[in-house]
What we know:
GTP_CycHdrlase_I_reg; 3-stranded antiparallel beta sheet; GTP cyclohydrolase 1 feedback regulatory protein; alpha+beta; GTP cyclohydrolase binding
Amino acid sequence: MPYVVVSTQIRVENGPTVVGDEQSDPELMRYLGATLTTQLGNDFKEYRSPDPPRVLLDKLELRGYKVIAMSGIGQTCIWTLNKPPEFA
């Protein structure tokens, strides 16, 4: 089943929003307006969108994704979404 993890720093709740890693579906990332970037000091790439989390969560819902969990970790908010098999 496809999963997507969306996260943002609380202090930048209006964006940018992290929506995937370098193994994420490129077509879905284009739909979300996300670009693949590498943050200074990281040795991995991640997809970032300039949109706030609410906009991305709305877009993902239109594609059949449902939020299955949300958590706060330090200054970060994280949503885990799943696309049920009937939408895959």
